[in-house]
Amino acid sequence: MTIPAQFDAKTIEDKWYDYWMKNNYFHSEPDHRTPYTIVIPPPNVTGVLHMGHMLNNTIQDVLIRRARLKGFNACWVPGTDHASIATEAKVVAKLKAEGINKNDLTREEFLAHAWDWKEKYGGVILEQLKKLGASCDWERTKFTMDPDMSASVIHSFVDLYNKGLIYRGYRMVNWDPEAKTTLSDEEVIFEERQGKLYFLKYKISSLTPEGGTANAEEYLTIATTRPETIFGDSAICINPNDERFAHLRGKSAIVPICGRVIPIIEDEYVDIEFGTGCLKVTPAHDMNDKALGEKHNLEIIDIFNEDATMNSFGLHYQGKDRFVVRAEIEKELETTGALVKVEAYLNKVGTSERTKAVIEPRLSDQWFLKMEDLVKPAIKAVLEDGEVKLHPKRFENTYAHWLNNIRDWNISRQLWWGQQIPAYFYGDGKEDFVVAENIEEALALAKEKTNNSGLKTEDLKQDVDALDTWFSSWLWPMSVFGGITDPENEDFEYYYPTNDLVTGPDILFFWVARMIIAGYEYTGKKPFTNVYLTGLVRDRQRRKMSKSLGNSPDPLDLIEKFGADGVRVGLLLSASAGNDIMFDEELCNQGKGFTNKIWNAFKLIKGWEVSDTIPQPESSKAAIEWYEAKLQQTLLEIEDNFEKYRISEALMGTYKLVWDDFCSWFLEMIKPAYQQPIDSVTSAKAIEMLENNLKVLHPFMPFLTEEIWQILAERTPEEALIVSAWPELKLFDANLIADFESTAEVISGIRTIRKDKNIPFKDPIELKVINNDSASTYFDSVVTKLGNITALEYVSDKVEGALSFRVKSNEYFIPITGNIDVEAEVTKLTTELNYTKGFLKSVQNKLANEKFVAGAPEKVLANERQKEADALAKIATIEQSLAGLK
Q1: Residues 204 and 219 sit within 8 Å (Cβ to Cβ)
Q2: What does the alpha-carbon distance between residue 248 and residue 266 come to, in Å, rounded to a whole number?
Q3: Concatenated DSSP letters for 321-356?
Q4: Is the domain defined by 181-352 classed in CATH 3.40.1010.20?
Q5: Which residue from 555, 564, 619, 548 is spatially nearest to 583, judged by alpha carbons?
Q6: Do residues 188 and 510 make contact, with C-beta atoms less than 8 angstroms apart?
Q7: Which of 33, 443, 696, 736 is most exposed by smallest CB count within 10 Å?
Q8: What is the Cα 130 distance to its own chain's centre?
Q9: Which sequence spans correspond to the domains of the chain?
Q10: For the chain, first and last CA: distance in Å?
Q11: Is 371 exposed, middle or buried (0-12, 13-18, 19+ CB in 10 A)?
């Protein structure tokens, strides 16, 4: 067939992905082979492909394709996450645009709209992953709200509740007023923001303990960052050891604007040195204030609606947003004389990880999971036994900090999109409920609990809240194989525990740690062995890529421009574990350049005429032996890098092998003379070496490699590259590699002289060698060919009237022929000699400095001594060349 001049990525990508899908190469079923399993970090069903997904899924595809080539039964389970908060927000916005208010719908009506939305938009990101080449087992695609997946979540809730690990409590929670739901502590992001500190005057109003009247004009000054919360004040607290306020014991104060009288209480919780030494206590809107309120039996006054607007306690501010009130109340406080001063104040503000709204502390009945005992096996697995390994290891410190300081997990959300909490209420009391997997089981439990056989299903009301999305996805490695509801099924017993997890460090808490916790709780086993934590993709200014900044390219546009293989290589070349990527499109261009280099090398090999009659040259025989050894050495290095999860280094090793060793050296060494055929033995070996290269390249560049593989020979579907065998590891001669490194230096030396002296390659030259190192002569035929040497002779004495260079201790001489401007050459060499002598003197002065030698590290001294030796050798070579010219 005619090989196209250019590699047409788009046509080839569609062709081979369709071919792989048609032949079902991605699908896995349990068999006699060792499984290799990856579960995808399920992207939000609302999502579209971004650069983070590109990086994460490229790494997963590299791992899964390599496992296939190495003979494992490779299974990569894809899927999406229902993303309660994000999806519900999108559906609510869509309904609003259609003139529909969510509050006017029943739960069932709203969920029908949500499922319609999911069916229309929910598969976009998985389809986009196919463009990248992701070889997921699409037949196993899961969605966290599939019936079987939801059944696993409900089963888990009931199980944990029956174990006494889930409880319902009235607690201070993190409230997202935009999403109108609670969040767990881990979903709150604290940001430093410039705010204000308001100093407010509270008038003292009560009688003195002795029965006298308090000074009507006496005030306490309180500092607060949230003046709008004064409507919820229940007390002012002072430290009992603070003599400044001893006279206020037993008295009361009047809250500005609302005029409510509140007690002045004493508690050592108040820091005497901080602020004014007085604290306003608002139990409904601050975690620490709530504790004080419970201790001192204070009134709890909730002043906010669920959207963080003021309720009726806010008087004339009712219905206004908290931040609007903050701006307006400052003016009113100033007008009434209650505002002493305002100072700039840098404050840490909790924001919602999903909506970015400022979090509001709020008291509410919620469901919690006790974590103290659940985390112990997960701590042991990572930090003690090493059963689960984090790559890079430094993230163990972050993991340890979180698990050792963990609090109970708030798992309920005030949403409809998600698994509805399986708690059924049969009365008005807070404890009048049962927990069951369905209403029939709930009815039986309720009858038993109440001793009321007359209860009916319509007497039960299911909790309206949904479970936190993470409570679904923490079961992911188990639930995708049915391991929660049917732990003895064949798939689960075969594929679990999985092998590797590839994800970002930003969800180490949300997801990774929780999956480890769940794995040990339900199976007593780890969910995976290795966690590869990728870095974040940033732009050249180190900014995180985002749509809002406009600095994130569309991944599909990149694939269109550079090809999927080019983009994959571009991303991975700089993607070392845990380190952020400074993304630049030039990286993808470099990947595309690599693609073209391989394609041109393939065309070169296929373009040679092959002869069965000519003998194999010694230079080709030596080249083949060297490259086979070099391939084996690189395979070992690649293996080591993969074992250490250094994917970028594994690619770089492959890149250098193919670009430098194969394309730049090997093909030059075996290339036949112009318009001459190549011998059949060398040709067959060149194709064999190319095929081995394609196998090593395939995980990184699947489309290009499959295309070349299929053109090289007629292949049955069973012989496709994607299911071929990884190159076999064999013993190799390391001396051969070391000898060639010296040979390459010799050839470079010859080429440098040719270039400097304008000696065309077509002009043959002689080479004479003083072999001081007793170096191997095995590659002399290669030197002769690549240097166009007519005669290579080993001599014992320096050659007069010759240009020379050194490689290690060996000296190489090229006798002068033709018209060389001797005078200009002497001038040039003299200048270089003088510079080198000056450099040598500076190095030797440094080494003669006793203070420097005594204080410098051994590495530094060794480096300086090497500089000295190199300079001396160079001076000797230049002087020798000058002597030959004079």
Answers
A1: yes
A2: 10
A3: BHHHHHHHHHHHHHHHT-EEEEEEEEEEEEEETTT-
A4: no
A5: 555
A6: no
A7: 33
A8: 20
A9: 145-165+370-422+463-534, 181-352, 765-885
A10: 60
A11: middle
Write out the H or E segment, with its range, that includes residue 566. Answer: helix 564-572
* Of residues 437, 461, 465, 436, the one with CA closest to residue 448: 436
Closest CA to 328 of 310, 346, 345, 313: 310
List of E strands, 463-558: 466-467, 500-503, 530-533, 537-538
How big is the CA angle at 11 (ends 9 and 17), to the nearest 5 degrees?
90
Q: For residue 623, what are its two tokens?
A: 């080249």
β-strands 466-467, 412-413 pairing = antiparallel
Assign domain 145-165+370-422+463-534 one CATH number from 3.90.550.10, 3.30.43.10, 3.40.50.620, 3.40.190.10. Answer: 3.40.50.620
Amino acid 714: pLDDT = 93
Pairing, β 789-794 against β 765-770? parallel
- Token pair of 331, please? 């003016």
- Which H or E run includes 418? none
The CA-atom distances, in angstroms, between 683 and each of 441, 607, 677 are: 74, 11, 10
pTM: 0.84
CA gap 620, 617 in Å, rounded: 5
Residue 77's DSSP bridge partners are 39
Q: Alpha helix (H) ranges present in 646-733? A: 647-656, 667-670, 680-697, 702-712
Tokens standing for 97? 């645009």
What would the two tokens of residue 637 be? Answer: 């290095």
d(CA 175, CA 307): 9
User: pLDDT at position 547, please?
Assistant: 57
| DSSP count for the chain of H helices, then E strands | 28, 31
Which residues of the chain have a pLDDT value below 70? Answer: 1, 206-216, 545-551, 576-578, 817-822, 884-886
Closest CA relative to residue 82, chosen from 374, 547, 472: 472
DSSP label of 663: I
Q: Which of 376, 382, 469, 404 is nearest to 144 (CA)?
A: 469
Please return the burial class of 499, using the count of CB atoms within 10 Å of its CB with bins 0-12, 13-18 and 19+: buried
What pLDDT shows up at residue 454? 87
Per-residue pLDDT at 243: 87
Which pLDDT score, from 0 to 100, does residue 214 have? Answer: 47
Q: How many residues comprise the chain?
A: 886
